Structures are given as structure tokens and as C-alpha cells.
Amino acid sequence: MPMIVLYFLSFFSKKAKIALGEIIWDELDVQLPEAVGVIEDDKPRMEQFANLLKKINRHKKKALQEWIEERIYDFQYHGPDLCTGSEEEFERKWLQIFNEHLRVLKSKTP
Prior knowledge:
5 helices, 0% strand, globular
């Protein structure tokens, strides 16, 4: 679905808003250094993320916020009951990354 259509649908549909948030995440993510999952090591990424947020409108920020919140919820409540250590490490890493991005998105300070 073209982004312009998704953008307008996102005013009426939570599913479309989350899909728009994923597109925005992907667009921003390619412009940022790779996420490590350690707060101190991700500071340059968070600073650049905060700068990129200044360039997008409020509706897109809200869509991005809802998508990140959805990812956090999925990691917390929809993960497997039994998982290996490496799967657990992967989940913790991405939970940390998403939580940090959400913090910056809500506070607008890296």
C-alpha cells in the first residue's frame, strides 16, 4: 500500500497507524548507527534519533510511538514460554533498544 494512502488511513485505523509507524521506523533506522542494546553505547544513535524526530510531523511521531509500544508489548507478553539463552538475550537486547527509543520519543531528549 502506498505510504500516502497509509498515512491518511492511519487517522482512522489503529492497524494502519501501526503499519505507518513501522515504515517510519524503517526509514529512520537506515539513517542511524546500528543499535547495540547498551544504553551507553547507543547514545550517539539516540542523539541522531532525537534530531531526526524534529523533522517529522506529530502524526508520524504518534504512529511511530504506537508501533514501538506494540513491539515492546509483543516482547513482554507474546514471547515463547520456553526459550534458549540466545533467544532470551535477543529479546532483552531489542526490548532495551525499543524502550530507549520510546523514552527519547516521549521526552525529545537523547
